[in-house]
Amino acid sequence: MEDTVDHLAHERSKAQFNVEEMKIIWAGSLHALQVSDRIAKLVASDPGFGKENRAVLSRKDLFKSALKKAAYVWKRINELGLSEEETSWLRFYVDELAYDYVHWGMFVPAIKGSATEEQQNKWLPLANTMQIIGTYAQTELGHGSNVRGLETTATFDPVTDEFIIHSPTLTSSKWWPGGLGKVATHAVVYAQLITDGKEYGVNGFLVQIRSLDDHFPLPGITVGDIGMKFGSGAFNSMDNGVLRFDRVRIPRNQMLMRVSKVTREGKYVESNIPKQIIYGAMVYVRQTIVADASIALSRAVCIATRYSAVRRQFGSPQNDQNGNGIETQVIDYKTQQSRLFPLLASAYAFRFVGEWLKWLYTDLIQKLEGNDFSTLPEVHACTAGLKSLTTSAAADGIEESRKLCGGHGYLSSSGLPELYATFVPACTYEGDNVVLLLQVSRFLMKTISQLQSGKKPTGTTAYIGHVEHLIQCGCNVKKAEDWLNLCVILEAFEARAIRLLVACAENLTKFANPLQGFSELSPDLVEAAVAHCQVIVVSKFIEKLQQNIQGIGVKQLLETLCYIYSLNLIHKHLGDFLSTRSITPKQASLASDQLRSLYAKVRPNAIALVDAFNYTDHFLGSVLGSYDGNVYPKLYEEAWKDPLNESVVPDGYHENIRPVLKQQLQNARL
Ligand SMILES: CCCCCCCC/C=C\CCCCCCCCCCC/C=C/C(=O)SCCNC(=O)CCNC(=O)[C@H](O)C(C)(C)COP(=O)(O)OP(=O)(O)OC[C@H]1O[C@@H](n2cnc3c(N)ncnc32)[C@H](O)[C@@H]1OP(=O)(O)O
Ligand SMILES: Cc1cc2nc3c(=O)[nH]c(=O)nc-3n(C[C@H](O)[C@H](O)[C@H](O)COP(=O)(O)OP(=O)(O)OC[C@H]3O[C@@H](n4cnc5c(N)ncnc54)[C@H](O)[C@@H]3O)c2cc1C
């Protein structure tokens, strides 16, 4: 008989804030909550979107199942006439990685960002109706981070008015593009443009790779899948691919020509649009990955928090002297709280910074339409830095959540192993996280050097303009409660960041060769970039608190989470804060005292804070994290579904177990 008891009801009754209002804050608006909730329920109730145990499927079955779901997604979108907003929620809740992620997430944005209006008019209707399926073919076997080092060539032939796309070496083979291996019919291919015997750097080209009639590769094209990836399920439903060109010809007008073009005569012509716009699809996706990080982390934290409230270990004050009675909920252990609650706070922090980053990106797009490119460097630095910071923290946080669930967290049915395996490559794709932080530090060093010429930093670097104050200011905290001041916290973060940045800038001047200096100091530069990105996250959390926040207790809880996020970072990066004298050892110890009180404030609200994510059991896909907390029957039931339990005596018994046992028996008799 099905258990309908809510095992977490008592926990829910302890909440000191309005959960429904918090749901609105998490979703971004009442409208967003209503739409997402409606689509989540639609997905959860449709058997076509049922989640099989992906971990036990063979690669081929996994891939076939992802194809089937992607086709069903497309069918339902069309049948239901879903809007763009509803469609993205649908994909989100279906939660199955397939070629369509790269088609919509990169191929279409690359065309929108780098193609001329005429080219967009031709290609976007085809892509938007999926008459063609595209991928983003930039990375090669030999080069991923170093985009300028790509080896694929696109040589203009003025006789036929065509480009010849060629893979001159093994290392020039395109390697990794999602959806390329088995599905994509087209690709935006990044290649070195050559015309009139001269090289003009990397540009994008729209290339058809498979026949639209029989799906065979077109002449001159070699294409396939690059093989199994990390973990069970996870990215293995995606056909990341390899692609080689043997002098494949495409019409000249399939070069994406918004930024620069090649004329009929073969002349390379640059526009006044910055060349970096061809990297625009990456900026777009990095911004979306920050939102992914908050989702992935909140999902793991939701599972770990609910399970921690259900799981009991060891005695409690209510026990009798024999240790019998109610055991302690593991969420009540202070060590569990000090590991779990900062992750909960980070999930909220990343949600808010992601929301702000989306605004910053939208603002950039509006400015670009008016040929205003002024904010591009800052948007590049923010998207690169925040993508790096949030994905690294989320990946670590998912793994910590697994450990917080003890042994059961290691079971596939906990949902955590696959969540980790699916999310961890976000630290690499769309730019290796260290490489991206080096981009941020390059931008920051430039900002600092421009101070001397009187240029006033703006936006996220505005605090750098207060360098004199921040270099010499001291933190005023004298007792633990003094840390409950957002201005004090923000100033400590700004002081630490600027002191690290200025130290890097000063050290760089000691090198005659700036490039050598940059390389020599790169570990310090990365640390300074992280400190700067943390200033952004903390300040955007604080800005969120200044908005009109409705609902009993909601603002107070968010403030508590903001303090936990910040003070825990101080605790984690204590070396930086102390070595830059941004705080004293005594203040560091007061921050730890304050953190303990903050954890106590979160404790009664923990379950309600994860309920506010509004995740369905279908989306969570975890026997440990289900809403009702009915963990043990679900774990037990799930175990019996494993293919190994289909027979009582396993396949292979007669060949490989019985002979061993027999041997043991004979040895014993001798
Ligand atoms: C689903 C299964 C169930 C499991 C559960 C899962 C649930 C989990 C929940 C959520 C998870 C959701 C997961 C979703 C998954 C989605 C699928 C994702 C698909 C992934 C697709 C990936 C695609 C890719 O990776 S595409 C390839 C990306 N490649 C890179 O990023 C390369 C990185 N390298 C570079 O960007 C550059 O080469 C460089 C910037 C590092 C260096 O370039 P270079 O030109 O040499 O640079 P430099 O000289 O330093 O710079 C020149 C100036 O240009 C400026 N600049 C550089 N880049 C940019 C830019 N992008 N925009 C603007 N400006 C830029 C730079 O600052 C310099 O400026 P300056 O003024 O001269 O200083
Ligand atoms: C799941 C997945 C999906 C992907 N999808 C796509 C796709 O759809 N399309 C596509 O084109 N690509 C895709 N990629 C490729 C991805 O973009 C690259 O792997 C990524 O940009 C990193 O490049 P790399 O592999 O060359 O790493 P490398 O640059 O070789 O990095 C190796 C190591 O070197 C370090 N390093 C490199 N350069 C520097 C430096 N200058 N200073 C200091 N350290 C450095 C890095 O930090 C790292 O530790 C995907 C990758 C993955 C894992």
TrEMBL record:
Q: Tell me the cofactors it needs.
A: FAD
Q: Does the keyword Flavoprotein apply?
A: yes
Q: Which GO terms describe its biological process?
A: fatty acid beta-oxidation using acyl-CoA oxidase; lipid homeostasis; long-chain fatty acid metabolic process
Keyword Oxidoreductase assigned to the entry: answer is: yes
In terms of one coarse class, where is the protein primarily found? Answer: other
All copies of the Acyl-CoA oxidase C-alpha1 domain together span 279-445
Query: Which residues does the entry assign to the active site, renumbered to this chain?
Result: 430
Residue ranges of every copy of the Acyl-CoA oxidase C-terminal domain listed in the record:
488-662
This protein's superkingdom? Eukaryota
Of which family is this protein a member?
A: Belongs to the acyl-CoA oxidase family.
User: In its UniProt entry, what is this protein called?
Assistant: Acyl-coenzyme A oxidase
Source organism of this protein record: Rubus argutus (Southern blackberry)
